[in-house]
Amino acid sequence: MIHVMRSTCLSFLLTATLAPLAAAGHAQSSQLPEGAHRDTVQRVCSSCHSVQMFTARKMSREQWGTTVSSMVARGAKINDDEFDQIVGYLATTFPLNGEAGTGAATTKQAKAPRRPSLIDQAGSDDKQIVDEDAAARGKTVYIAQCITCHGTRARGGSRGADLVRSVVVLHDRYGSTIGPYLTQGHPKSKPVELTQEQVKELSHFLHQQIGDTLRTGPYNNPLDILVGDAKAGKLYFENTGGCAKCHSVTGDLAHIAGKYAPPALQQKVVFPQNRAITKQGTASRQLVTTITVTTSSGTTVTGEPLNLDDFNVSLRDANGHYFSFACSPELKVEKHNPYAGHEALLDTYTDKDIHDVVSYLETLQ
């Protein structure tokens, strides 16, 4: 029953996030390439994500793990086994700098009308759908007319504005605001003269740059996050942050830097409940919140909570037995949240504290 409910929740979430895609009329294939645990991916993901959504992204196991973990952080309900199966399938079938399996090759033969990405899941209902071919032609226009002042990625410079953050560009739909703006005479020294089709292609290119710059874009890979002071991080770990109350650099954190890359290490500090992929390719495990119920007669039961409100408490213990209690002044309920310490720090630590701690943990090779 729990599994069914989780799948239902995930399907609802993904359906909601991909509704704009469906409305846009994109081709949706229901068949993923052959591979171990394809059925799991098909069942959990493919009801809303098209095959093109996967084939357009080639990533390492760690990157796929981060992507799936981010879906979990947004509310997707999958268990640890499903997480491992999904990440394993995606990393094997759609690897970074590798050839996809036989099924993937078959899929690639059918040219997709465009290359969707995760960014397609966000934005306004009328947002511009980038035509990759038109964007490529628009890039030629951009290089000829705009790049000198606005830079190679349209991020601006001393001579021109940042077009990725330009209100004119952000409000534009297929040249609707860019065209009239250029018609007024821009730049003043030598106004650009473009055909309507060129304006539309330029619009596709600029919207492509916006998508690439956002969080899910290809330019958003962390380059170097080890910018903190390791000595200050050690002091924070042992004193202000109180990390040493629960962790030990010679115990659970021994050689932690050899296990996780810096971005995953930082994720474990800030969002420890999210799963991360180790350098060895395995996924970290999520700890489970439990409750202990003590009745008026002194009987205690500990397990994973199924329901907890003002009227009833129910849980399932480690042996799978179900228990339910009516709340009363005599009934004691104690919650054990393994991430309580990290959640308490969210209100207190600064960006510098996080960078310092991660730099310190990186010394634990």
Description:
With 365 residues, this protein is of the alpha+beta class. Helix content is 42%, strand content 8%. It has 17 helices and five strands. Helix 5 packs across helix 6 and helix 15 (262-270) crosses helix 17 (351-361). The chain is elongated and about 85 Å long.
Q: What keyword list fits this structure?
A:
365 residues, alpha+beta, five-stranded antiparallel beta sheet, 17 helices, 5 strands, disordered N terminus
Distance between the termini: 43 Å
Helix-strand makeup class:
alpha+beta
Helix content: 40-55%
Strand order of the largest sheet: 4-3-2-1-5
The outline comes out as elongated
* Count of runs of 4 or more consecutive helical residues: 17
Brief sketch in words of this structure:
This protein has 17 helices and five strands. The protein has helices at 2-17, 19-24, 38-44, 51-55, 61-73, 80-93, 102-109, 132-145, 147-150, 167-170, 178-183, 196-213, 230-238, 256-259, 262-270, 340-345, 351-361; strands at 290-294, 300-308, 312-316, 322-326, 332-336. α5 packs across α6.
What is this structure's SSE topology?
Layout: H1 2-17, H2 19-24, H3 38-44, H4 51-55, H5 61-73, H6 80-93, H7 102-109, H8 132-145, H9 147-150, H10 167-170, H11 178-183, H12 196-213, H13 230-238, H14 256-259, H15 262-270, E1 290-294, E2 300-308, E3 312-316, E4 322-326, E5 332-336, H16 340-345, H17 351-361
Antiparallel strand pairs: 1-2, 1-5, 2-3, 3-4
Helix pairs in contact: 5-6, 8-12, 13-17, 15-17
